[in-house]
Design goal:
The protein is of the alpha+beta class and 400 residues long. The protein has 2 domains: 2-169, no CATH class; 183-208 and 238-369, Nucleotidyltransferase, domain 5. Helix content is 41%, strand content 18%. The protein has 9 helices and 14 strands. The protein has helices at 12-38, 44-57, 66-89, 207-224, 230-263, 275-278, 285-291, 293-307, 350-369, and strands at 2-9, 106-110, 115-117, 123-126, 133-138, 151-159, 162-169, 183-188, 192-196, 201-203, 267-271, 310-314, 338-340, 347-349. The strands form 3 sheets. The protein has a 7-stranded antiparallel sheet with strand order 2-6-7-1-5-4-3. The longest helix is centred in the middle third of the chain and has 34 residues, at 230-263. The chain is elongated, with a radius of gyration of 26 Å. The N and C termini lie far apart (68 Å).
């Protein structure tokens, strides 16, 4: 599944029609969630049928395309299904479904109808009851290479800097690459974004830290404006644009770096870090969130599947404490940045030593399983599951 995105260009009254469609989609989603709360035991199909009841009861809800209403009901059911799964797993935070509030960002999703592309694939028209009209699309992706039957979903997304359209294409992305016969282990950190097993480092860009001064200034201006005024809306939009720029910088850095790492190696090993637990440290939470290790890992796994490269997530325990030369456990605090082994005398940078241990664990895991899956699912062991053991045979009785 591929997702192509382009920015929409239209007039002010057209944007207002899109806002009405987004508000209606949010209303349908919240109404389905309320219907599930009041009628325990209903499922996905009952929520889809309830969309027709809402269209008859509220005439303005009938303006929204029928498939768009069903897509909103599917969003409500996805939140409910996630809550059920967490209950089965006995998670601490079940994630009970919540109602969506009015926010700057929002979206409405169409399926196979309610929209129409022009012949040159440069404009798109929305043909539902809101009659938003035609919009020009600005983007770098060309839709001429794909058939209209491959477009499964069309999503309109509202952000701080405008409106965007996303096309979900039923296409499998597979790209060829030349094997490099290189393996690498990555140790992520805050001083350097990562240190590999060859000793190479990539500096941490710290996008939020660099923009923090401007963000504080814009936030202060927002707090000084009176509530409900146009100046406050304009100040809020400027602040949201600044945050949006930081998030886009972070994503761009993660995508480009992950693609470069995948194309340069045949195996990539990294730590299976629990970032959700690590951000509980109030002293390092902002720096860890700014580094975006989870996003970098997600893009590593995605490009690993696209280019056919093995990606292995290894347990992070003792990767920084073990000596990469002799295996001796050398305990050290976070302030100690140099590894010194008292047994063999090996001296090395702390992160470089950990990256070598991570690569060794990754090669050991792949060699043990004998399965090279590009998706990174090497064995049941990585999912903390124990494979079923074979029934043992009883010992033969000795011959008389």
């Amino acid at each position: 599944m591929l997702v192509f995105e382009a920015k929409l260009e239209g007039e002010k009254h057209q944007y207002e029609k899109l806002d009405e469609a987004i508000r209606t989609a949010r209303f349908v989603r919240n109404s389905c969630l309320r219907y599930w709360m009041e009628n325990k035991g209903i499922g996905r199909y009952e929520l889809s049928a309830y969309c027709k009841v809402l269209a008859k009861e509220f005439p303005w809800a009938n303006k929204l395309n029928s498939m768009a209403r069903q897509a909103s009901a599917e969003r409500a059911w996805s939140a409910i299904a996630r809550f059920y799964d967490n209950c089965k797993k006995k998670a601490k935070k079940k994630g009970f479904p919540r109602f969506k509030k009015h926010q700057t960002h929002g979206s409405v999703e169409y399926k196979t109808c309610g929209w129409k592309l022009s012949e040159d694939r440069r404009t798109i028209a929305f043909t539902d009851g809101f009659k938003a009209g035609s919009f020009k699309m600005w983007g770098t992706r060309d839709l001429h290479f794909y058939q209209l039957e491959q477009v499964k979903r069309v999503r309109v997304v509202r952000r701080a800097d405008g409106y965007y359209v996303q096309f979900c294409l039923d296409v499998e992305r597979v790209e060829k690459r030349t094997p490099t016969q290189k393996n690498i282990g990555l140790d992520v950190g805050l001083t350097h974004f990562y240190t590999d097993s060859d000793g190479q480092t990539v500096e941490n860009p710290r996008h939020l830290r660099k923009s923090e001064k401007a963000l504080k200034r814009l936030s202060k201006r927002l707090s000084r404006t009176p509530k409900g005024s146009k100046n406050r809306a304009a100040a809020r939009n400027r602040l949201m644009r600044a945050h949006l720029k930081v998030s886009r910088q972070r994503k761009d850095f993660a995508v480009k770096l992950a693609r470069c790492v995948i194309q340069s190696n045949d195996l990539v090993a990294y730590e299976d870090l629990q970032v959700r637990n690590m951000v509980k440290n109030r002293r390092l939470a902002k720096s860890i969130s700014d580094a975006a290790w989870s996003a970098f890992r997600d893009w590593l796994e995605y490009f690993g599947k696209v280019f056919g490269v093995v990606t292995v997530a290894v347990p992070p325990h003792y990767t920084s404490q073990n000596c990469s030369n002799c295996g001796e456990i050398v305990k050290k605090s976070l302030s100690q940045r140099t590894h010194r082994c008292p047994r063999c005398g090996h001296v090395q940078d702390r992160d470089w030593n950990a990256a070598i241990n991570i690569l060794e664990l990754g090669l050991r895991t792949v060699g043990h399983t004998g399965r090279l899956n590009a998706s990174g699912d090497i064995d049941l062991y990585l999912g903390e599951e124990t494979p079923p053991s074979k029934p043992s045979r009883g010992k033969r009785k000795p011959k008389q």
